[in-house]
TrEMBL record:
Protein name: FUSC family protein
Keyword Transmembrane tagged: yes
Regions that span the bilayer: 29-60
Swiss-Prot/TrEMBL keywords: Membrane, Transmembrane, Transmembrane helix
Amino acid sequence: MKQKELSELTDQELLQEAKKMKTNTIIDAVFIGFLAGIVCFSVFANSWGFLTLIPLFLIYKLVNKPKDKQKELNNLLNERNLK
């Protein structure tokens, strides 16, 4: 099944998509916190090494995730006065 473009979605589907994005943002924040905790524990346990760099890389990827879809969704919600 192909995913529809955001502009083709109905009002109800747009609101559901916004809800999913908000949930994904919260999950990403929790995951980033968890990974930061792993890095802090690793540093305090004096085991700075390759396994400490993996969570740092994952944090970098999560923080720099493209936000284009979220901006487009917010613009559509504002155009349709749904928020």
